[in-house]
Amino acid sequence: MTVAFGATVVGRLAPSPTGALHLGNARTFLLAWLSVRARGGTLLLRVEDIDGPRIKSGAVHATLEDLRWLGLDWDGEPLLQSERFAQHRAAAERLVLAGLAYPCVCTRKEVEEAASAPHEGGEHEPVYPGTCRGRFTSLAEAEAATGRAAALRFIVDVDAVPFVDRFAGPQPGRIRGDFVVAKRDGLPAYQLAVVVDDAAQGVTEVLRADDLLPSTPRQLLLYRALGLREPQFAHVPLVVGGDGLRLAKRHGDTSLRHLRDRGVAADAVVGFLAATLGLRPRGARCVPAELLPGFELATVPRGQVRGDDHGLL
């Protein structure tokens, strides 16, 4: 479903079916839903299923089922990102033709060994030192010369892309190193696919967890390079465990499926999430629609949220 730009906000839910949805995912999706629905906007759903090896069998169906169980709805039919590879490929080719991307045959190990700094700002990602920039004139030449499949990297010639986040406020947008836009298997990298698809769907607001803040400068560069309209970004606090790290299995099973299988009601889960948003007292029960009157994103607490002390079982 493609929506034209206008006065109405257009948001999206963009789950990735690489595992069961947990309370952290649910909180972010609930906030994205509230932010759009409270302003009478359009909310789309796109399943980001391009990370092939990590996609779990049956996860797409289970993800949609969990969202419906929570009481979250969307407009139009869900879009599978994997159905848009042709559009992603065309965008990558445009970048190459414009001299903004180039083939790279470096392995991750080689990048790590050659990098002058240990990481880029994205989690566990080394700074690319530019080894292949200007080395080859085409993918075919790169692959013929080295016998390796080549990725495509976007040229970064700035140190920062400042932006104002709707929730987190002004951001310096620090960025270092040319980044991958198409992987060695020819599939699009997340950074490119999400930009191409959000623009095609007319998305005006991207609300997601703040672990993706380092991705935003890259995506802004791609919007500008491709001549696409930029959405407004809103990055909300990540849900963590007692150790302060991203919610994961080590913190116990906080998946919606686990809670459902143990008889926890959807309104109890939404009530817990609403309490973390400062919208209901702890222990309250509610459905998403009951949280809409008077909802303002600015009133949401700004600190990290514990998800492993939910008290729902």
Account of the 3D structure:
This protein is α/β, with parallel strands linked by helices and 313 residues long. The chain folds into two domains: 10-77 and 237-306, 3-Layer(aba) Sandwich (Rossmann fold); 85-163 and 170-190, Glutamyl-tRNA Synthetase, Domain 3 (Glutamyl-tRNA Synthetase, domain 3, Alpha-Beta Complex), CATH 3.90.800.10. Helices cover 30% and strands 14% of the residues. It is built from nine helices and twelve strands. It has helices at 23-37, 59-70, 85-97, 108-114, 139-146, 190-200, 216-225, 256-261, 266-276, and strands at 10-13, 42-47, 79-80, 101-104, 151-154, 163-165, 169-171, 179-182, 205-209, 232-236, 239-240, 305-306. The chain has a three-stranded parallel sheet with strand order 1-2-3, with helices on one face. Helix 1 links the parallel strand 1 (10-13) and strand 2. Helix 1 packs across helix 9 (266-276) and helix 3 (85-97) packs across helix 6. The longest helix has 15 residues, at 23-37. The radius of gyration is 20 Å and the shape is elongated. Residues 1-6 and 117-121 have low confidence and may be disordered.
